[in-house]
Design brief:
Blueprint: H1 2-8, E1 11-16, E2 21-25, H2 29-47, H3 64-76, H4 92-102, H5 113-126, H6 132-139, H7 143-151, H8 156-171
Antiparallel strand pairs: 1-2
Helix pairs in contact: 4-5, 4-6, 4-8, 5-8, 6-7
């Protein structure tokens, strides 16, 4: 229901918490309000609830950083506490994509500061046990570049975002690479 109605209204992401739903839409305030009203009505009918939901809180996305944060916040709603195995190894076939996604980049190409941050986070997320040659091939850079990135400063929040995104993709049917 969320997907079918959201598709028509610019749904970018949604996540269900224990007692509420978050959604990010590329739409105007009226369309977002219409979507929220439809979801409330459909859920009340499907769940046979007598009570109304709390009024929807609609906030405009002010800039790219706000959109990035909202998108990732919404996706975190589906994962209960402790849902990620922090010690699981990262699937290298999704590492470059997840590093790019963590900074809302289309891909890891070029020499921009954001691409460098994403690559550095990917190298740190993969950990010291992954050979530099493998990481270099995965990220489209040379072995020496991987070695340099290993020595550069860490951004713990970004590294965690890359690692969790990679683990989530590996755990989601149809998203994991198949060997």
């Amino acid at each position: 229901m969320l997907l079918s109605q959201g598709e028509e209204r610019g749904l970018l992401a949604f996540g269900a918490a224990e007692n509420h739903v978050h959604a990010t839409l590329a739409a105007g305030r009226d369309s977002a309000g219409s979507f929220a009203h439809y979801v409330e009505t459909a859920l009340r009918w499907q769940l046979d609830l007598g009570a109304r939901f709390e009024r929807a809180r609609i906030r405009s996305l002010n800039d790219q950083r706000h959109a990035y944060n909202a998108f990732h916040y919404v996706h975190r709603q589906d994962a209960p506490s402790g849902a990620f195995d922090e010690k699981a190894s990262i699937d290298l076939e999704v590492l470059a994509d997840t590093a790019a996604a963590a900074l809302a980049l289309p891909e890891l190409r070029g020499r921009s500061a954001e691409v460098a941050r994403a690559r550095r986070a990917a190298v740190h997320a993969a950990g010291p046990d992954v050979p530099s040659a493998q990481l270099g091939e995965c990220l489209g850079i040379g072995v020496r570049s991987v070695q340099v990135l290993r020595q550069e400063r860490r951004e713990p929040a970004l590294i965690a975002a890359v690692a969790k995104q990679a683990l989530l993709r590996a755990a989601t049917p149809g998203n994991a690479s198949e060997s």
